[in-house]
Inverse folding.
């Protein structure tokens, strides 16, 4: 099974000082966070990408993927092309006000690229709802 699936961290968020909701009490993976459920892993992914907009002024899929999966250790161009095609979001489309549906499609495509298996859309949607409870109605 893919590491991101084993860790319930479908976008493979690397460990840092963030104290995410839903972390497993024991973190055995040296590099990546481990969550108690996929929904909490998706929640962390949505918040991280949202912070790319709010904190770093990144508003396109190209900017998000270049930061998420830098070329020094990833096939960034392939990643970007795949996510754009799979989510039907343009590489340079303005994502200032990305809808729930499109944001979920992006994250699901990123998960598929990271893990090699299709994301469970119910888990992705639940992760979005955990991240943005005010936008979920």
């Amino acid at each position: 099974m893919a590491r991101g699936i084993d860790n319930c961290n479908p976008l493979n968020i690397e460990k840092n000082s963030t104290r995410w909701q839903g972390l497993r009490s024991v973190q055995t993976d040296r590099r990546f966070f481990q969550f108690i459920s996929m929904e909490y892993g998706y929640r962390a992914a949505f918040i991280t990408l949202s912070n790319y907009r709010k904190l770093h002024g990144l508003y396109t899929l190209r900017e998000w993927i270049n930061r998420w999966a830098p070329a020094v250790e990833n096939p960034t161009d392939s990643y970007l092309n795949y996510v754009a095609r799979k989510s039907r979001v343009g590489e340079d489309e303005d994502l200032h006000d990305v809808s729930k549906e499109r944001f979920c499609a992006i994250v699901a495509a990123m998960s598929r690229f990271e893990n090699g298996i299709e994301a469970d859309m119910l888990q992705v949607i639940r992760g979005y709802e955990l991240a943005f409870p005010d936008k979920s109605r």
Q: What stands out?
A: The radius of gyration is 14 Å.
